[in-house]
Write a structure and sequence with these properties.
The complex is a heterodimer of chains A (90) and B (112).
Chain A (H helix, E strand, L loop, with lengths): L1 H21 L3 H26 L4 H34 L1
Chain B lengths: L1 H28 L3 H26 L4 H30 L5 H6 L1 H7 L1
The chains are: A mainly alpha (90), B mainly alpha (112).
Chain lengths: 90, 112
């Protein structure tokens, strides 16, 4: 069952990566990036459990936190750029 | 008891994988940014704790189990808030939902 979960996670990551490359707007890419990070956390947890690693939960927890902070930081940047562009237009 | 735990863990892992692959398909197939956000956010928020629950049921109770609980709680808190911030930024940046776009096409064209 762990192997099937790994296959499903890798398939979902492939679709998410395709959306991140093809996304029409920048928000699609940020969304795909956020979802890819969540799937990476799951991949670390499931793969670490299946391979019998020790201490994989720390890495997964750290990756989840970094993923959230990174998404919020990128969004701050794009929101500021969008409002700047709107002010310049008017 | 062990068989019951195995069956429960397998069911949780199966449901979580199904939700994850559904989220991926939704992210690839649905039209519009907000539809894709809907697919990504809902499936991730339920699918991630289900897969982690399936892992927790397989291992002995230890500190790693507690860390997996922490990861599940953290993702259940941060994933909806990240999607909320993303949709706010998208709305602020000029993206329009599909229904809004269809209804307000005439207004927009007459306004410009």
């Amino acid at each position: 069952m762990l192997f099937a979960t790994l296959i499903a996670l890798l398939g979902a990551m492939l679709l998410i990566l395709a959306r991140a490359f093809a996304g029409p707007s920048v928000y699609d890419r940020v969304l795909a990036l956020n979802m890819f990070g969540t799937k990476t956390v799951l991949l670390i947890a499931v793969g670490g459990h299946a391979l019998g690693w020790t201490g994989y939960a720390d890495i997964a927890l750290l990756y989840a936190m970094l993923n959230f902070i990174g998404t919020i930081a990128v969004l701050r940047f794009f929101e500021a750029t969008a409002s700047d562009a709107r002010e310049e237009r008017t | 008891m062990s068989l019951l735990l195995d069956i429960l863990s397998g069911l949780a892992l199966l449901a979580g994988s199904l939700l994850c692959i559904t989220g991926g398909i939704g992210l690839w197939r649905l039209p519009g940014v907000f539809c894709r956000m809907h697919a990504a956010s809902l499936n991730d928020t339920l699918g991630t704790p289900l897969i982690l629950l399936g892992l927790m049921l397989q291992m002995e109770p230890s500190l790693t189990t507690l860390k997996l609980v922490c990861i599940a709680l953290f993702i259940m808190m941060t994933n909806p808030s990240a999607t909320h911030a993303l949709s706010r930024a998208a709305l602020h940046g000029g993206e329009r939902p599909l229904a809004d776009r269809a209804a307000g096409a005439e207004d927009e064209s007459s306004k410009r």
